[in-house]
Amino acid sequence: MPSAENPRLEGVPFRRRSGVPLQCRLTELALLEVLMRNAGRVVPRTLLLDKVWNLNFEPSTSILETQISRLRAKIDKPFDLPLVHTVRSMGYTLHGPS
Predict the structure, then answer these.
(1) Which pLDDT tens digit goes with each residue over 23-37?
(2) pTM for this one?
(3) Is residue 45 exposed (0-12), middle (13-18) or buried (19+ Cβ within 10 Å)?
């Protein structure tokens, strides 16, 4: 999981997008890390819940949707092309323009 002292993922700064600083919380960075490690692939909800919150079941709360929404507000909303995509009934994926 990223920390305030280590805001990089394998040498790629992910606190910026197109040179614009991103103000993400640690949970948002943890979500982004899992999505980046699986870029281009669908990441199931259960995997995100396990990797970010250490939950091995799908709770009836909207914790994941809330955090994805917050992440999108920071890394997608200010830009023309979104990176985080919902794959209905499956999970989420991170990819840029094809």
Answers:
(1) 888 899 899 999 999
(2) 0.80
(3) middle
Residue with tokens 């250490």, as numbered in its chain: 54
> Which residues are 21's β-sheet partners?
16
Helices 45-53 + 26-37 axis angle, to 10? 130
Q: Which residues pair with 87 in a beta bridge?
A: 91
Cα–Cα distance measured from residue 94 to residue 43, given in angstroms and rounded to the nearest whole number: 9
Nearest to 8 by CA among 29, 39, 31: 29
Cβ neighbour number for residue 35 with a 10 Å cutoff? 23
* Contact criterion met (CB below 8 Å) for 14 and 71: no
Question: Which residues have a Cβ under 8 Å from the Cβ of 97 and sit 6 or more positions away?
Answer: 81
Six-digit token pair at 90?
Answer: 């499956």
